[in-house]
Design brief:
Blueprint (H helix, E strand, L loop, with lengths): L11 H6 L29 E5 L5 E5 L54 H19 L13 E2 L2 E2 L9 H7 L5 H13 L3 H12 L8 H18 L2 H7 L13 H8 L2 H16 L5 E6 L6 H11 L7 E7 L5 H4 L3 H15 L3 E6 L8 H4 L6 E7 L15 H10 L5 E7 L8 H20 L7 H20 L12 H10 L4 E2 L3 H11 L6 E6 L2 E6 L2 E9 L1
Parallel strand pairs: 5-6, 5-8, 6-7, 8-9
Antiparallel strand pairs: 1-2, 3-4, 9-13, 10-13, 11-12, 12-13
Helix pairs in contact: 4-5, 4-6, 4-15, 6-15, 6-16, 7-16, 8-16, 9-10, 9-18, 10-12, 15-16
Length: 545
């Protein structure tokens, strides 16, 4: 990604080019919106409770809002700064999901139902926030949006932002409330109100602050990218880069060390697989996100010690080309590493690489041979596969059915316990805010707030997912999480039965969590394991056959 010679890009673009110590509060790029439609349809929203500084709780709930295709050419409908814009990518439209909402949320339950009372609470709170910023004379409609005027879409002249008053009010504002108010303005295509709230948020967020301030910085960037239609470009640009020297950890390696999400996936899957193939002489492991391959080095060591000697192991590693940025090279690196580990354990070994995106994989790419016990591993990868709401090919279910046709001995699935796949924009924003609040708090306990490595890891490996979920739609939105209940439905429809996890799997995960903060825990529910941060389910591990 190139920077302009005259201007530096705002927000995450600046994070990508600048050392951490040079990060300053960022400005708002100039924007023009063409043919931008946000439609929540008639879908139900999700309510979420937040706590005020006074200890009071209130519930925010998403609402249905539709804005037509509008041209924003007048100065009143654009926001400018001295920084260069993102490149527009084209218009997007929301995909609605009228059905499912999370059963639980971090700190408070989410409701899948939408009621007039809860909608009124949201509008009232957003109205109170705007009154505190604009003053009681501001001309805002009951829906929380500025009025349409003939010849354009702009604020009434009486609704001016009192910036001196704003600076006095900001310390008393709740950052979550302001983020939700800004997302509501973006959802309603209310550019004037969104721009003002973005200026307020600029004073409240920080990539080196408290967890909610760091998360707020990236969610703000997602809102900006949504308006500028540049979310997919940012997502592609913010890759986890390879280390520049042998002693510099990759950004993903930092997250791997300070929080247990990946180790939870590897540990639980390995424990299940070890049981399922205990007596098998020939094992073929198909990993749809091989990454560094370190998961299989550990498993080979355990299988090498079993009575009767080690099995013959073949591993097929699937990985797209972008993963080379996190690895420092192609899949041949993984094959060499695993071959060396196998030789040290005296395990007969063969590695086969499939260097393509998971949705491109066909049966012939997997080279399954007769007599092999097939094991398939899906670690945090199926949510990237487009489903029926994105394309008629429905690669998500196609892959599951294809794997079933292999008659696998066991299939392991680990996914984030979040619901962002088919939700329309505003309910999805609420869910993203809820889930990643817990995520950033859990990351926070691993390193000091000003730790530059952690800041870089968050910017390059977490922020890109957040921007994608907020800014992108249709095929460009690749971060599409689903709850275990939905995965269970997909696997069952493909002919799978859920495999009950033994106590040894739970024990292995609990032993792992002893290395981390005490607010992490694991729960057994519905034949699956739930990794939790405090009272929030963060990830699930399940097995199928």
């Amino acid at each position: 990604m190139q920077t302009s010679q005259k201007h530096r890009s705002a927000g995450i673009h600046r994070f990508y080019h600048q050392p951490v110590q040079e990060i300053d509060p960022y400005g708002l790029s100039h924007i023009q919106i063409l043919n931008n439609m946000y439609s929540d349809g008639g879908s139900q929203g999700a309510a979420i409770s937040f706590q005020t500084d006074q200890g009071e709780f209130f519930t925010l709930e998403s609402s249905s809002a539709t804005a037509g295709s509008i041209n924003y050419d007048s100065p009143a409908a654009s926001v400018s700064s001295n920084r260069s814009p993102f490149s527009p990518q084209g218009s997007h439209s929301c995909i609605s999901d009228p059905h499912h909402s999370p059963d639980t949320a971090y700190g408070s339950p989410l409701s899948g139902s939408s009621s007039a009372d809860e909608d009124h609470i949201l509008r009232q709170k957003l109205r109170e926030l705007e009154i505190s910023l604009l003053g009681p004379e501001s001309d805002i409609t009951d829906s929380g949006s500025f009025c349409f005027v003939s010849g354009g879409y702009q604020a009434e002249s009486s609704a001016s932002w009192d910036w001196n008053q704003m600076m006095e009010v900001i310390p008393r504002l709740d950052l979550k409330h302001v983020l939700l108010a800004c997302a509501d303005a973006v959802s309603n295509a209310d550019i004037q109100r969104a721009a003002g709230l973005m200026h307020v948020l600029d004073q409240m967020v920080s990539v080196s602050g408290e967890p909610i301030q760091r998360l707020g910085a990236y969610m703000l960037e997602g809102l900006r990218a949504r308006l500028e239609l540049s979310g997919s470009k940012i997502y592609r640009a913010l890759k986890c880069e390879a280390p520049i020297s042998s002693d510099l950890m990759t950004y993903m390696g930092i997250l791997y060390q300070i929080c247990p999400y990946w180790k939870f996936a590897y540990t639980s899957a390995n424990a299940v697989i070890q049981e399922a193939v205990e007596y098998e002489p020939r094992i073929h492991i198909i990993d749809f996100q091989i990454a560094q391959g370190s998961q299989w080095s550990v498993l080979m060591q355990k299988l090498a010690c079993r009575p009767g000697g080690p099995p013959v192991i073949r591993i097929t590693g699937v990985d797209d080309s972008q993963s080379a940025h996190a690895r420092g090279g192609g899949l041949d690196i993984v094959g060499q590493r695993l071959s060396k580990a196998a030789a040290e354990c005296n395990v007969p070994f063969e590695f086969h690489d499939v260097a393509m995106d998971g949705c491109e994989v066909q049966l012939e790419h997997l080279r399954v041979q007769p007599g092999e016990a097939v094991v398939v591993n899906f670690p945090y990868v199926l949510h990237h596969m487009p489903d029926e709401s994105v394309t008629t090919w429905n690669h998500r279910d196609r892959l599951i059915r294809m794997v079933k046709s292999l008659s696998p001995r066991i299939v392991t699935l680990v996914e984030q316990e979040s619901n962002t796949n088919t939700k329309p924009f505003f309910p999805r924003f609420i869910e993203t805010l809820d889930y990643y609040t817990a995520m950033f708090e859990s990351i926070d306990v691993g390193r000091p707030k000003d730790d530059k490595q952690r800041i870089n890891a968050e910017q390059h490996c977490v922020a890109r997912d957040i921007v994608n979920m907020i800014a992108c739609e249709e095929a460009e939105r690749v971060e599409r999480h689903e709850l275990l209940a939905k995965w269970r439905s997909r696997f069952t429809m493909a002919g799978f039965n859920q495999y009950p996890l033994s106590s040894s799997v739970t024990t292995a995960v609990r032993d792992l969590l002893k290395e981390y903060d005490r607010n992490y825990s694991v729960q057994e529910r519905d034949w699956a394991l739930y990794l939790r941060w405090r009272h929030r389910d963060m990830a699930t591990s399940s097995a199928w056959r």
